[in-house]
Amino acid sequence: MAAAPRDVPRRGLFIGGGWREPSLGRRLPVVNPATETTIGDVPAATAEDVELAVAAAREAFRRDGGRHWSCASGAVRAKFLRAIAAKIKEKKSDLALLETLDSGKPLDEANADMDDVAACFEYYADLAEAFDGKQRLPISLPMENFKSYALKEPIGVVGLITPWNYPLLMATWKVAPALAAGCTAVLKPSELASLTCLELGAICIEIGLPPGVLNIITGLGPEAGAPLASHPHVDKVAFTGSTETGKRVMTAAAQMVKPVSLELGGKSPLIVFDDIDNIDNAVEWAMFGIFANGGQVCSATSRILVHEKIAKQFLDRLVAWAKHIKISDPLEEGCRLGSVVSEGQYEKIKKFISTARNEGATILYGGARPQHLRRGFFIEPTIITDVSTSMQIWREEVFDPVVCVKEFSTESEAVELANDTHYGLAGGVISNDPEICERLTKAIQAGIIWINCSQPCFVQAPWGGNKRSGFGRELGEWGLDNYMTVKQVTKYCSDEPWGWYQPPSKL
Ligand SMILES: NC(=O)C1=CN([C@@H]2O[C@H](COP(=O)(O)OP(=O)(O)OC[C@H]3O[C@@H](n4cnc5c(N)ncnc54)[C@H](O)[C@@H]3O)[C@@H](O)[C@H]2O)C=CC1
Ligand SMILES: C[N+](C)(C)CCCC(=O)O
């Protein structure tokens, strides 16, 4: 049974611990992409609101000399992070429903995302607590008159700009470590899916997060994101989204020598060798790698490379499995492929598919609207073969349930094809041979390697890419370092004068 849609809460911008109407009074419609109906609206922030949000974050960072937040012990901040996690769990089904209505993702996936959101806040609460005991570790020096240690401090006010594919989860990957580190933040979610991020604001009020520690401004990229990225009082920008926008964010930040971390697009390969025992197990990972979340995943393994000896059998099984994916309203029980996020994204896929066809590729399966769904931005899972390396479908990120499959005959050819991309986020190898797996782990140019699987993600492990997929690592301890700066502290501990100006010098 499908859950009954609820009313979408009407929220303002979350600034300084309360709701505020946007300065220009404008709002953006929220469209449910599975029904194409408008279900609510969100405030459209502009530079004036960014100003207020950054000022609130700055004030929260400095309030009482930082005693209650930025300089407080990690244990103090952990308490708030745990309280947020508890509220997420309590409101899980409402939040998951909102996420599905906003983004078109299957409700089962939205529920799993909310579990991951709560787990991420808890994980960074643990790290914040453990952090207290790890500060001021002595650094060994070659002169005994000096003692040195490193002090990790929060970087300051951070601007967090996030995408629509996992709206609350991608925001959490930044908010949780930033707050754990003692930063204060301004979050700018994607205009295409902001509802659950605004609900995070409501949760902050409920748990009594100090005002201004987290501010949430919804709005368009150029109007709300750009002034945040270029703001002189924002000390760091963390961004997830497209490579094109990433470049703009980096250019804006460069004017103030502001550090950025960028988690951008991908065109990740999954290489399937002919030594595997069970082709269906490989097919299932391949499917999960490109059809989960409708392929709207930065790390989706959207290029499958399969050994020529098993290519026919693999493709037959892939098509057979793809035919059985349940495509439906994402609220329907058992849905495994919902709608894509927006009309713009839907039109973009259709163009990609027609260009692939015009360039000579074969649409082996899918490529069209499922016949039983007349409304909503739905597209069949799409499998494309006869692909050459100059084709758009091989080179560019589609960010949808569209995969291209290419054969290889030798390991070195597979590596060459895998690395034939400007991107470098992830890569997968499916083989029974540990030596092949080891060699490919080293040879694939990417920040994440999956062996005999695709897409599993654990909050404890580093996440991020190389090449044009960006730089910096989220999650794990690396995620916390993203929001810290390291201060060297060196003390002279002798009663003797330094002696430099009293020749003959002792030095
Ligand atoms: N790596 C990833 O996880 C993601 C990749 N993408 C890729 O990007 C394509 C387009 O999706 P979009 O929603 O247009 O992504 P986008 O990169 O434009 O949006 C991401 C975020 O950046 C903000 N933004 C846009 N312009 C900005 C600017 N000038 N300054 C600061 N912030 C700005 C947006 O409002 C949003 O919050 C997708 O089809 C996909 O290929 C999209 C979302 C996530
Ligand atoms: C690991 N997963 C699939 C939950 C999130 C991937 C991150 C992204 O698409 O930006």
Radius of gyration: 25 Å
Provide the structure class: alpha/beta
The domain tally reads 2
Give the CATH architecture of the largest domain: 3-Layer(aba) Sandwich
User: What's the total number of strands?
Assistant: 22
Q: Which percent bin holds the helix content?
A: 25-40%
Comma- or semicolon-separated keywords:
6-stranded mixed sheet; 15 helices; binds 1,4-dihydronicotinamide adenine dinucleotide; globular; 7-stranded mixed sheet; Aldehyde Dehydrogenase, Chain A, domain 1; 507 residues; 2 domains; 20% strand; Aldehyde Dehydrogenase, Chain A, domain 2; 38% helix; single chain; alpha/beta; binds 3-carboxy-N,N,N-trimethylpropan-1-aminium
In brief:
With 507 residues, this protein is of the alpha/beta class.
How would you sum up this structure, described in words?
This protein is α/β, with parallel strands linked by helices and 507 residues long. It folds into two domains: 13-264 and 469-490, Aldehyde Dehydrogenase, Chain A, domain 1; 269-451, Aldehyde Dehydrogenase, Chain A, domain 2 (3-Layer(aba) Sandwich). It contains 15 helices and 22 strands. It has helices at residues 47-62, 74-90, 92-103, 107-134, 167-181, 195-207, 221-229, 243-254, 279-291, 311-323, 343-358, 392-395, 411-418, 434-443, 476-481; strands at 13-15, 18-20, 27-32, 37-43, 138-139, 146-154, 157-161, 184-188, 214-216, 236-240, 260-263, 269-272, 303-307, 362-365, 382-385, 402-408, 423-424, 426-430, 448-451, 466-467, 470-471, 484-492. The strands form six sheets. It has a seven-stranded mixed sheet with strand order 14-15-16-13-12-18-19, with helices on both faces. Strands 9-8-7-10-11-21 form a six-stranded mixed sheet, with helices on both faces. Helix 2 packs antiparallel against helix 4 (107-134), helix 2 packs across helix 6 and helix 9 (279-291) crosses helix 10 (311-323). The N and C termini lie far apart (81 Å). The model has no long low-confidence stretch (mean pLDDT 96). Bound molecules: 1,4-dihydronicotinamide adenine dinucleotide and 3-carboxy-N,N,N-trimethylpropan-1-aminium. 3-carboxy-N,N,N-trimethylpropan-1-aminium is lined by residues 165-166, 170, 240, 297-299, 455, 457. The site of 3-carboxy-N,N,N-trimethylpropan-1-aminium (NM2) has 9 residues, from loops.
